Amino acid sequence: MLFLNKDPELAKAARRIVEEELQLETLSIVGWRDVPTNEGVLGEIALSSLPRIEQIFVNAPAGWRPRDMERRLFIARRRIEKRLQEDKDFYVCSLSNLVNIYKGLCMPADLPRFYLDLADLRLESAICLFHQRFSTNTVPRWPLAQPFRYLAHNGEINTITGNRQWARARTYKFQTR
């Protein structure tokens, strides 16, 4: 999941760099997809700074294990970020064969209404992790919206007991096949 510049030429240049770096890792490009969204749920600030939101799909060479592909995607992502660091509207939300991150500059309740994929009954996941946090000391920007690529403790969890009880109380909702 990528945030691209709204300027068509800058977005095209970013796509070219993304493809070059992925191909350097021997990944073949399958295609790009505009992520379907509903802009009507966004507020004024989010709408005025809304990036292009796209996904790229790649195939790994035969015989690669999932961790091989994940490692190569990580390396490619780091090089992509370095090459595109001057484009402040470019951001890699997720570039992984294991994790897909939907993030937005919106209220948590609006996320599944903004990303139409999340309301699609065909979408399946073994696990879904939801995280919300609001900027307290920075101007809101799409790349700064939660969640980040990795879940990590930032020192602000004040009541681990309360969090565990909250999770236990909802385990009846969890299902697996």
Automatic annotation (TrEMBL):
Coiled coil: none annotated. InterPro entries: ET-N_metabolism_enzyme (IPR050711), GATase_2_dom (IPR017932), Ntn_hydrolases_N (IPR029055). Pathway: Amino-acid biosynthesis. PROSITE patterns: GATASE_TYPE_2 (PS51278). It is an enzyme of class 1 (oxidoreductase). Its cofactor is [3Fe-4S] cluster; FMN. The keyword Flavoprotein applies. One of its GO terms (molecular function) is 3 iron, 4 sulfur cluster binding. Keywords: 3Fe-4S, Amino-acid biosynthesis, Flavoprotein, FMN, Glutamate biosynthesis, Glutamine amidotransferase, Iron, Iron-sulfur, Metal-binding, Oxidoreductase. It holds the Pfam family GATase_2. Its EC number is 1.4.1.13. The keyword DNA repair does not apply. SUPFAM superfamilies: N-terminal nucleophile aminohydrolases (Ntn hydrolases). GO terms for biological process: ammonia assimilation cycle; glutamate biosynthetic process. Belongs to the glutamate synthase family. This is Glutamate synthase subunit alpha.
